[in-house]
Design brief:
24 helices, 3-stranded mixed β-sheet, disordered N terminus, two-stranded parallel sheet
């Protein structure tokens, strides 16, 4: 295939979406001739998908801002926040149920395969989300990755999301943006109280988070957030700095301060008081098995995360098998570099203590880490023409996680920028301690979060219809990011640094461990300490890292299983393509087929690969 690149800009693509809305199902072409029935059906389906997208964004206006589509007729979304009350969530479910029925009613026959894929994706996402809304408690991520049984905890809640969102995603280009910012601040106490209502309702059902998670939320995070609010710093300092940078008057910051020190601080205090009441009722059982309807909730969360029907026992056993295979690949490399005694986990622990692979402590080490990441991004970007025929050029920046978020956050995370290109893709790096990272594993983490991982994949999704840019599936998102790590290895990232390949393989093994640990916690009644020790002893993981990781699994049940399940399925589909196409198989064409098909459930991914195989077979017959 010939190397190509996208010729449409994001703004042109969005303009095309807007033009689509002007078409009517029974309309006529510019020549006056009636539109063919198949074309009319396609136009109707496209219009429906756009309507469905904006119906979703009515309930999650923050996503509209992050995508850069809160403009024109949808500009009022920029001043709103999601209704976190039970009433708001019920209305959200009502919208999903109505739109799911409309999507299911669209005849698929004669439609373009890409359009059929989009309809299938919506049907899968909405039906799964509605099953989640039907459960008696919890927070449902519609077409996203963070389903949680607890509405507010150490890594879940508006108290965490809003400071980062308003600082990094809400635009401040002019007075209207500043007005919208203020309207969002004014709405924030109501949003926090909506969460509080659901926290109290869950407590009434006997749903109490583990005590160690409550301690982490209150002591390490929420108390500092409240202190920042009461002192007039939360939101206000960031707002003032951004206003000055844009040459706008700082009067908006002065208006914001009494909002923050008063109603916002008070709403946060009410949430902490509720968590305090729950702490008095809490135990330290880590898994969903101990919660009311916990087995049912976990079964749904696992299905949502993996987009499969695999049982907890099946996922657990698959994780053990994957771990054994990966350790078999690590063993000869360890022996080659002189680590010959002990299990793979024990030898990786010894490697992690080697000062040659540690970053300096404190700010000097943080600077080293940032420079290392920049160097790896530059290298992998230069290699992308060797892996893809269809290229993107993502805007990308690396930012440190907010200090208040670091204690409950993973080592890093990343994602694409906005659909209109105004917000760059980002890798958020956790720098609470440089001991979280090693020189042999940071390259792999960078490829996962940026290129060819999350940021790279998201750029393709941003060029699909709006609903496809919104809906993301954990197994595909994280499976692709792991496959991106594999692509980097196949392009030679570690050919001159064998210890780096160990880091890559250990990272894959880490994701296999997640399958074991997550199902262990929530299905097999493991303790928190059992889960941590499994990582450290079996995989040689760093205790500092897995301590936070395990707590994350306790508050996001099932999510950790999607990574390796998704990666294994992409690899399986690649083996299928190689076997069926033989000499006609092309590495770059396969990668295009997967990423251009967009973020999708794993069964839809298989259909996309099947169409790619059929297309190549037809051309070469």
């Amino acid at each position: 295939m010939t190397q190509t690149s996208f010729s449409l800009t994001r703004r042109q693509a969005l303009a095309g979406l807007g033009a689509t809305t002007a078409l009517t199902l029974g309309g006529c072409a510019a020549t006056g001739r009636p539109i063919a029935l198949a074309q009319a059906q396609a136009i109707g389906a496209e219009r429906l998908l756009e309507v469905v997208a904006y119906n979703l964004l009515e309930h999650e206006p923050e996503r509209a801002t992050s995508l850069g589509v809160d403009t024109g007729r949808y500009a009022e979304l920029r001043a709103r926040l999601e209704d976190q009350s039970q009433t708001g969530q019920d209305l959200y479910a009502t919208t999903l149920r109505r739109d799911l029925g409309r999507v299911r009613a669209v005849p698929r026959e004669g439609l373009d395969p890409d359009l059929v894929t989009s309809l299938d994706v919506v049907e899968s996402a909405y039906s799964t989300a509605l099953d989640g809304f039907a459960l008696p408690y919890g927070d449902v991520a519609v077409g996203s990755w963070r389903n949680a049984p607890y509405v507010v905890i150490q890594n879940v809640g508006t108290y965490l999301d809003m400071p980062r969102f308003l600082d990094s995603s809400h635009p401040l280009e002019d007075g209207s943006d500043a007005d919208a910012y203020m309207e969002r601040l004014e709405a924030l106490p109501g949003v926090l109280d909506g969460e509080l209502e659901r926290m109290q309702a869950a407590r009434g059902m006997g749903v109490i988070p583990p005590g160690f998670l409550i301690d982490k939320a209150i002591i390490e995070q929420m108390q500092s957030t409240i202190a920042s609010a009461r002192s007039g710093k939360l939101f206000v300092d960031q707002l003032r700095e951004r206003l000055v940078a844009k040459g706008m008057p700082s009067a908006f910051a002065a208006r914001a301060e009494p909002l923050v020190t008063g109603p916002i601080a008070e709403a946060l205090t009410r949430q902490v008081a509720e968590l305090g009441r729950q702490r008095g009722m809490a135990d330290d059982n880590a898994g969903m098995w101990s919660q009311p309807h916990g087995d049912e909730w976990y079964a749904w969360a696992l299905r949502a995360s993996t987009t499969t029907t695999q049982s907890p026992d099946e996922v657990h056993e698959a994780g053990l098998e994957e771990l054994a295979m990966l350790h078999a690949r690590m063993d000869p490399i360890l022996r080659e570099i002189g680590y010959t005694s002990g299990s793979v986990g024990e030898r990786m622990q010894a490697l992690s203590r080697d000062p040659r692979y540690q970053f300096a402590e404190g700010d000097p080490g943080r600077a080293e880490i940032r420079a290392f990441i920049d160097d790896r991004i530059e290298w992998i970007t230069s290699q992308m023409p060797r892996a893809f025929n269809t290229l993107v050029d993502p805007k990308l920046e690396v930012r440190r996680l907010p200090l208040s978020e670091e204690p409950g956050a993973p080592a890093a995370y990343g994602g694409a920028g906005s659909k209109d290109g105004t917000i760059p893709g980002r890798m958020w790096i956790n720098l609470r301690t440089t001991d979280l990272h090693r020189k042999y594993d940071l390259a792999d983490l960078t490829y996962h979060e940026t290129i060819p991982g999350h940021v790279w994949e998201g750029e393709y999704s941003n060029r699909l219809p709006l609903i496809r840019s919104i809906l993301a599936f954990n197994a595909f998102s994280e499976g692709w990011a792991l496959y991106g790590e594999q692509i980097a290895d196949e392009l030679g990232a570690y050919d001159d640094f064998k210890v780096g390949r160990l880091g890559y393989l250990q990272a894959l093994a880490f994701r296999a461990c997640r399958m074991v640990v997550d199902t262990g916690l929530h299905h097999k009644c493991w303790t928190r300490e059992q889960a941590r020790n499994f990582f450290v002893e079996r995989n040689g993981s760093k205790y500092e890292e897995v301590a936070s990781e395990v707590d994350r699994y306790c508050s996001w049940p099932g999510q950790a299983c999607g990574y390796k399940v998704g990666h294994s399925e992409i690899v399986r589909q690649r083996a299928r393509a190689e076997a069926e196409l033989g000499d006609a198989y092309d590495f770059k064409a396969f990668n295009d087929a997967v990423v251009l098909g967009g973020n999708a459930p794993l069964d839809v991914l298989a259909k996309n690969v099947g169409r790619y195989i059929a297309g190549v077979s037809t051309r070469t017959a």
